[in-house]
Amino acid sequence: MLKLTKRTEYGLIALVHLADKAAEAPAGSEVEVVSARAIGDQFPVPKRLLAEALKALQADGIVESTRGAQGGYRLAKPASEISLRDVVGALEGSPMLTTCDGPAGGEEHSCEMESVCRIRSPLARVRMGIWALLDGVTLESIASRSIDPAEFVSPAS
After folding, report:
1. How far apart are CA 122 and CA 70, in angstroms?
2. What is the pLDDT of residue 106?
3. Number of independent structural domains in the chain
């Protein structure tokens, strides 16, 4: 149903690496930057896609970059303040479940069946639920592997 793109996967790999670097830094000291090349050398990901993902994350304020020979990236805020929703939104935009899932009246919204359609509203609620789940998962929980799947399973009614 919902599948993250490779760009988002590579961005998450980079973010977890940057979160680890931030966690290793002594309290009160500045976190060192890590180049896209260094991340690409450590993980088997295409460097071009990794660099594109990092640029998008930087543009959205999730990471900050330093230019130059000693340049690189670091988290712009604590990993506990970065949600999976932030990351997916920065790298993919708002995921749509159906072609009519765009905002009413917008360019993406063009459905001839709107007046009789019975799926748009329920599927919009599903989409909002997915976003809420993504909002509840932080980069810190991903990096520390402390996500409890039971948190996301609702009891049978």
Report:
1. 50
2. 46
3. 1
In terms of Cα–Cα distance, which of 44, 91, 45, 51 is closest to 73?
51
Q: Report d(CA 19, CA 62) in Å as an integer.
A: 11
Is 125 part of any domain?
yes
- Return the CATH number at 48: 1.10.10.10
Q: Which residues, in sequence order, are bridge partners of residue 63?
A: 75
Q: Is 72 helix (H, G, I), strand (E, B) or coil?
A: strand
- Residues 88 and 2: their CA atoms lie apart, in Å, by 11
Give the tens place of pLDDT for each residue, 85-126. Answer: 999 999 988 766 666 665 544 455 567 777 777 777 777 788
Q: What is the pLDDT of residue 15?
A: 97
* CA distances from residue 48 to 14, 44, 63 in whole angstroms, order as listed: 13, 12, 17
Quick one: tokens of 129?
Answer: 């639920």
Q: Which of 3, 54, 21, 16 lies closest to 138 in space, CA to CA?
A: 16
Please report the pLDDT score of residue 144 as a whole number.
87
**Ordered alpha helix ranges (H), the chain:** 6-24, 36-42, 47-59, 84-92, 120-135, 139-143
